[in-house]
Amino acid sequence: MARKKRAPPDPKDPEMTDPRDEYLSRFIKDKKGKDLGESIGLDGDTLIIKDRMDFFRIPLKSVVIMDDHIQITGRVNWKKARKEGEKWRTSELDPLYVGDE
User: Fold this and answer.
1) What does the angle CA 63 – CA 53 – CA 98 come to, to the nearest 5 degrees?
2) Reported pTM
3) CA-to-CA distance for 23 and 36, rounded, in angstroms?
4) Residue-by-residue DSSP string for the chain
5) CA angle 68, 74, 79 (to 5 degrees)
6) Closest Cα to residue 71, out of 18, 22, 41, 32?
7) How many CB atoms lie within 10 A of CB 85?
């Protein structure tokens, strides 16, 4: 007896959408309009930004979603953001990372 194929989930179904998806794959601009990179992920209440080879992790409360980009509106400690972004990259993207040893 053949099984019926299930229809793929409807992306418009409210149960299948996450409002935080709005933050993903958008360019980030500072207060002066300078491009800072692209949003590639969320981790808790932080946004992960990739700029060339650098990763940054900044608080969501420091950004606002605009029509075609994400605008930095709050103060960001970029030195700390880079350090935290590197930790995120190591734990999430490095295939040989095993955890805190």
Assistant:
1) 95
2) 0.76
3) 15
4) -PPPPPPPPPTTSGGG--GGGGGTT-EEE-TT--EEEEEEEEETTEEEEEETTEEEEEEGGGEEE-SSSEEE-S---HHHHHHHHHHHHHHHT-TT-----
5) 100
6) 32
7) 24
The pairing of strands 63-65 and 54-59 is unpaired
CB 57 within 8 A of CB 88: yes
Name the nearest CA neighbour of 30 among 84, 76, 83, 67: 76
Mean pLDDT per 10-residue section of the chain, whose length is 101 residues: 52 66 92 94 94 95 93 95 95 70 50
Could you name the CATH architecture of 23-92? Roll (3.10)
Tokens of 37: 């990179």
